[in-house]
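Postdoc handover notes: sequence design on the structure in folder B. Input tokens:
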């Protein structure tokens, strides 16, 4: 069953719900518990989408897996070779924030970049997943922003600090459980100006290949997120910038860059 799963707050504890209805008049139908861990069951409670606060649609209990240089033009713009195999790195789950949350500009960097991406949410524990079974382990898809301190990435020679600060992994606005991701448009805007415009068909390693590869050496758990790489056009963000990542068929994830308070 195709659903648009949101995690949200309506003045109390976070809830999960299915976003339904026409654009501009959507409602959120509340679900029993977390749909990652139990069958979908509606409580009968409903809220207008305009009256709730959307949260990160998933908080990975284990890990966020990033894929570097998965678009040839992006690798080239930073002067890098295209890797033969997927280039895998990890982001801590503490880096995850939701729609509307602030991306904190740390004082340790002076070159903070956006990276708009398609994000894959894993739905079941799995290992050594063959290509033909990948659809069985995917819960759905959302938008991601792999925020990166580019100067720290260059200085450290590895990426844990550059990509691991708190707030460096915005996800949202919700999870689409059924979607053909073979050729979707990905767009990133900063202050309304288009900075990235690519398509998932430009990936060097597609979603099926990525899940198969990553699961060949690490166990994937429900709620794990795979960021599938970013198209060309990455660049700096400044305090006060509003950054939006739109993935066709999913929606738009918007965050503002703020100073550390």
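Designed sequence:
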């Amino acid at each position: 069953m195709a659903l648009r799963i949101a995690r949200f707050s309506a003045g109390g504890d976070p809830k999960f719900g299915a976003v339904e209805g026409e654009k501009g008049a959507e409602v959120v139908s509340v679900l029993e518990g977390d749909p990652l861990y139990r069958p979908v069951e509606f409580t009968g409670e409903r809220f207008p989408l305009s009256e709730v606060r959307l949260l990160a649609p998933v908080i990975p209990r284990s890990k966020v897996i990033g894929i570097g240089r998965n678009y040839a033009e992006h690798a080239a713009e930073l002067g890098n070779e295209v890797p033969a195999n997927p280039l895998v790195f990890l982001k801590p789950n503490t880096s995850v924030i939701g729609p509307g949350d602030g991306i904190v500009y740390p004082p340790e960097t002076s070159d903070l970049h956006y990276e708009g991406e398609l994000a894959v949410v894993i739905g079941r524990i799995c290992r050594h997943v063959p290509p033909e079974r990948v659809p069985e382990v995917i819960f759905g898809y959302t938008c991601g922003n792999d925020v990166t301190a580019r100067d720290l990435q260059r200085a450290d020679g590895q990426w844990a600090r550059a990509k691991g600060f708190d707030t460096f992994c915005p996800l949202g606005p919700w999870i689409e459980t059924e979607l053909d991701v073979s050729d979707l448009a990905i767009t990133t805007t900063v202050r309304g100006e288009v900075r990235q415009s690519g398509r998932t068909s430009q990936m060097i390693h597609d979603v099926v290949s990525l899940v198969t590869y990553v699961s060949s050496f690490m166990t994937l758990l429900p709620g794990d997120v795979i960021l599938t790489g970013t198209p060309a056009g990455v660049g700096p963000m400044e305090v006060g910038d509003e950054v939006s990542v739109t993935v066709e068929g999913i929606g738009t994830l918007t965050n503002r860059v703020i100073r550390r308070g």
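Context for whoever picks this up: The helical segments are 72-77, 134-137, 150-156, 160-164, 207-215. Don't rerun without checking with the PI first.
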